[in-house]
Amino acid sequence: MIFLVKGSGVYRVISAIFITFALTGCSQYEWGWYVLNPNTEQGRTNLWFLIQGFGDTIGVSLISMCFAMLLGLAIALLALTKSHTLNLFNRFYVECVRSIPVLVLLLWVYYGLPTLLDISLNHYWAGIIALTVAESAFMAEVFRGGIQSITKGQHEAAESLGLNYIRKMRLVVLPQAIRQILPALGNQFVYILKMSSLVSVIGLSDLTRRANELVVNEYLPLEIYTFLVSEYLILILVVSHLVRRLEKRLTIPSH
Description:
The protein has 11 helices and no strands. Helix 7 crosses helix 9 (165-195). By secondary structure, the protein is mostly helical. The model is unreliable at 1-6 (pLDDT under 50).
């Protein structure tokens, strides 16, 4: 078992599934896995119902991550200017957003924002907006640290070539900074994937919401939530493996 856990990404996924379901035999509880048995019509229907939740979970997470990176980069650049006002706004935004629980922000966006702006907002985009804002504060700090890690000589070299600020950041600074912060970006994407489970409270049919609905219909919470744990575990392990592979591809050889 230890060999499998230390092996490649595929072996880690297989090991995680094996360990999760092996632990279900460590008690006297009579497990009702028939509810998810792929050999029965009921089980196939329930499995397909749960698996369909991957679409909303991954979709909301990916879109939120992209928007959060753009917004976070914009906020980070404010901290790197010589303007005291913009620096102050950066600190105010980052500290305020990081202080608000994601669930509270999600509820405010879904129920409060439409009332405040007199607009119609469905649960899908409410989830994306809330996750984007919540994540952007962390992304701002990640980008700020990455940009500041680039040596002064790189900035001076870009300026000596006649590049303006925008072209310097786009062609010289940001490509190097992204290589530096790639592990942190991967961690933040994993964070968004896990936090996306909160969108179930506003009715989005993600993995968690579908599991909750199935529990109400089947009255087997232990089996269904154990399967839900496995779904998130597999998803996070796959994402982590892909991030590590991307990190290796973008690593600059030291010799």
